[in-house]
Amino acid sequence: MFKTVLCDLLNIEYPIMQGGMAWVATGELAAAVSQAGGLGIIGAGHAPAEWVQGEIRKVKSLTSKPFGVNVMLMSPFVDAIMSVIMAEKVPVITTGAGNPGKYIGALKEAGTKIIPVVASVALAKRLEKQGVDAVVAEGGESGGHVGELATMPLVPQVVDAVEIPVIAAGGVADGRGLLAALALGAVGVQMGTRFMCATESTVSPMVKTAIFKAKDRDTVITGRSTGHPVRCLDNKFARELAAMEKEGASIEELEKFGMGKLRLAMVEGDIAHGSIMAGQISGWVSREEPAEAIVKHIITGAQEALENLKVRIRM
Ligand code: TUI
Hints:
Layout: H1 5-10, E1 16-18, H2 27-35, E2 40-43, H3 49-62, E3 67-72, H4 78-87, E4 92-96, H5 104-110, E5 113-118, H6 121-129, E6 135-138, E7 144-145, H7 151-161, E8 166-169, H8 175-183, E9 188-191, H9 193-196, H10 205-213, E10 219-222, E11 230-233, H11 236-246, H12 251-258, H13 261-266, H14 291-312
Parallel strand pairs: 1-9, 2-3, 3-4, 4-5, 5-6, 6-8, 8-9
Antiparallel strand pairs: 7-11, 10-11
Helix pairs in contact: 2-3, 3-4, 8-14
The site of ligand TUI has 20 residues, from strand 5 and strand 7.
């Protein structure tokens, strides 16, 4: 057993959530993580509401365990996706890349738990006041759209600023990371990169191999000048985007160049010209495993790390 209040809040076995990665976190992956005792999450990304509804129904057909949907708030389909989530009585949502404030009332009424992903103390405090159930504090080690703070300084500052449960994300892929997050005051972790490489993940095998080959310094942040910094594996796409930024390309030009590039990598498997959003822990993630094995290894790893600490620290 390895339970925290997150398990009680979400009715799950282990305090592990899967990141809601756009073009990656399909119903297959979410169902596998939930079936393994964590919280699987469908990544709505820029997909239309009909796709999200199909994936929700897929998860329901594959598992009876709780699951979630991640709503990317920059999507043009947010309103329709929120309606589907409420109609389908989805147990939990996480949100990213914005403030979900205006949807909180309706979601609560529908019985959906709301766990926004935040990258700052200020947004965590504002959302606590608005009645969210918990927050994911996501450090800049994460893949995809990132904030400025790293996980180590962000998590304790959010933990001390709010009374609701805090889940740590960014740079976590194993039991040591889970234990470290708990030491910082978090009640669990959210992991993207490692679950992206799970057997049940439908991401292109080219992407999984690129992550297995990646070394510690192989991710970069692009798009700072657009106001939407994104961490991804360093490849031809990232270098071309960086060169455009250096030459002073406009936000419109940069956004046009980036359009469709996440799908190109994750679905089409074009690992040269696509955007392979992945976290700094990519350098450590080195093999494909079923979601169930990943969850089990993280829990036994955290238990071992705790025993090791008791030996290493003389008190
Ligand atoms: O959302 C994420 N990660 C993402 S979203 C995404 S989709 C995308 N595709 C192409 C270009 C850009 C994005 C890929 N990865 N993580 C959660 C997260 N949310 N990290 C940071 C934030 C965040 C940032 C600013 C949340 C709120 C915010 O400001 C809101 C406000 O009003 O203060």
